[in-house]
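Same chain as my last thread, 150 residues:
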Amino acid sequence: MTKRREPLTFHRALTVIAARIGWDKCAMLVGRSERLVRMWSDPDADSEISIIDALRLDGAFIAAGGDHGPFHRVFTTQLELAARDGTSADLAFAAANAARESGEAISALIEAATCRDPAKRRAARREAEEAIEALTDGIAALDRHEVGEA
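reply #2:
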């Protein structure tokens, strides 16, 4: 049975990278055994990846055609979540806000795609940023909801 790697965790980020470049290449890039690298992806293991090794693997993932750094994304998102105010909106409100902001962002992106107007492109970027913020607030509200705070 495959062990679950929760979203937005370093364990999951490593499995995403290994799926693209292979466990053997991951091990070679960080100068460690494949067994140890696999252990880094196990949420129940005591061993954890170092920041420098995570950076190397993110770089290899991007070089192999990936569109982001999986460890970087997890790290920055976790920092964003930690910075969220614990008294912000409840889960239902956060979900409604995320839906509204995401819809506005998609609409603005479609509009920007159909013309070359710099103002439309700026508006689309602003709407996308607002949607990302609303979705991050939604994840924070979800996390609080899981522990019974909201």
